[in-house]
Amino acid sequence: MAYLNKMQGHVVSLFRMVVGFLFACHGASSVLGWFGGFMGKGGTVAFGTWPGWWAGVIQLVGGILVMLGLGTRIAALISSGSMAYAYFVVHQETGLLPIQNGGVASAMYCWAFFLIVFTGAGPLSLDAVLSRSRTTAPAPEPEGASV
User: Fold this and answer.
1) Which residue, 35, 66, 121, 125, could crosslink 20 as a Cys pair with Cβ 3.0–4.6 Å?
2) Is 16 exposed, middle or buried (0-12, 13-18, 19+ CB in 10 A)?
3) How would you label 59-68 residue by residue, b for 16+ Cβ within 10 Å and e otherwise?
4) Global pTM?
5) More confident: 141 or 12
6) Cα separation of 84 and 78, whole Å?
C-alpha cells in the first residue's frame, strides 16, 4: 500500500497526460483535419462556426496545455465546462442518459477534467517545474549590500 501511495502523484501525471493528449486529438481532428478529419468524415469544422469550431479550439489548446501540465487547473476547468456544454446542449436533446444520446465521451471528458482541476498536474508537469524554479531561485540581495 505504501508503494501505491508513493506512486500516486506520478499516476495522476500520467492520467492527465493521456486525457490531455486524447482531447487534443479531437481538437486536431476538428480544427486541422488530422486523424481522419471532423468526426472521421474528413475535412474540418468551418472556421469560426458556433459551437463546433470553438469547441475544437478548446479541445486542441486545452488538451495540449493539460497534456503538458501548463496552466493545468484553468485549462482543465475550461475543458470540463466545454464538455458539460456539449453534453447538455448537444447530446441531451436526443435522450437523458449518455448511452442513449451519444454523449458518453463528453460526460467522461467533463468528469475527467473536473477531477484534474482538483488533483492538479502532478509532479511530471511544466507547472511543477516552474513552481520548483520559483522556490529554488536565490533571493536578490538588497541594494547596497556588500560581501
Assistant:
1) 66
2) buried
3) bbbbbbbbbb
4) 0.84
5) 12
6) 10
